[in-house]
Structures are given as structure tokens and as C-alpha cells.
Design goal:
4 strands, alpha+beta, Nuclear Transport Factor 2, Chain: A, 123 residues, single chain
Length: 123
């Protein structure tokens, strides 16, 4: 039994005594683990649009705003309090949002916001 323990002790000294070998094995493990992530990051950075191309921010083709977004647009435009809001579909199929607002605490007005988010008119 003592001979077995002596053998284990000598083996561990030899293994731990070769610190450069342990360091090299750990370093290789880190490189193997980190390499796929680094390659993915490099390919993602190359996939960007060219510097001279125009990318329109947050404007999707066929974008239709909902009633909540129209209410927010009307509030920003008038600064008033929302009394009521409804969506109306026109005869040509376009969607318009009618938002009744109390402006300056005394005047009631209706703001009409089209489906693209543009304020059409205030009645």
C-alpha cells in the first residue's frame, strides 16, 4: 500500500512540476473555446452595409400605426388631454384615427392622424 502512495506522490510531483506543460494545455483549451465566438464576431462585422448606402431608420414599407400610436402623436402635437379616440376606415380602405383633445383646459378639438402617422387636420 505504501508503495502505491509513493507512486501517486511521485506522479503528482512530476505532473505539477511541469508547470509550463499545464499552462500550455490550459491555454490551448481557452483558444479552442474562444475561437468560434471570435470568428462569428468577425463575420458579423463584415456583414454591415457599405458606408455610402442609405438605410432609412425605423420606416417599414406599408407601415400602419395603431390607435395608441396615433394618440401619442396627437398628444405630442397639441399637448392636451385625450377625451376620446376612434379609428375610422375611409371609402378607399385607408385608416384614419380621430382623437378628441382638451387643449389649454378649455377648448375641445379633434385631431385626425392618418395610417402613416401624419397629422392630417385639426377640426
Amino acid at each position: 500500500m505504501q508503495q502505491f502512495f509513493r507512486h501517486v506522490e511521485q506522479s503528482s510531483r512530476t505532473f505539477l512540476g511541469g508547470g509550463t506543460a499545464v499552462f500550455a494545455v490550459i491555454l490551448m483549451g481557452v483558444v479552442v473555446i474562444a475561437l468560434p465566438g471570435a470568428l462569428h464576431a468577425a463575420s458579423a462585422s463584415q456583414a454591415r452595409a457599405p458606408a455610402n448606402s442609405y438605410v432609412q431608420p425605423d420606416r417599414r414599407v406599408g407601415r400602419v400605426i395603431n390607435l395608441n400610436q396615433a394618440i401619442r402623436i396627437a398628444q405630442e402635437e397639441s399637448g392636451g388631454k385625450v377625451l376620446s379616440a376612434k379609428s375610422v376606415r375611409g371609402p378607399n380602405g385607408s385608416l384614419r384615427h380621430h382623437v378628441r383633445m382638451l387643449v389649454d383646459g378649455q377648448r375641445v378639438t379633434t385631431l385626425v392622424v392618418n395610417q402613416q402617422g401624419r397629422l392630417q387636420r385639426a377640426r
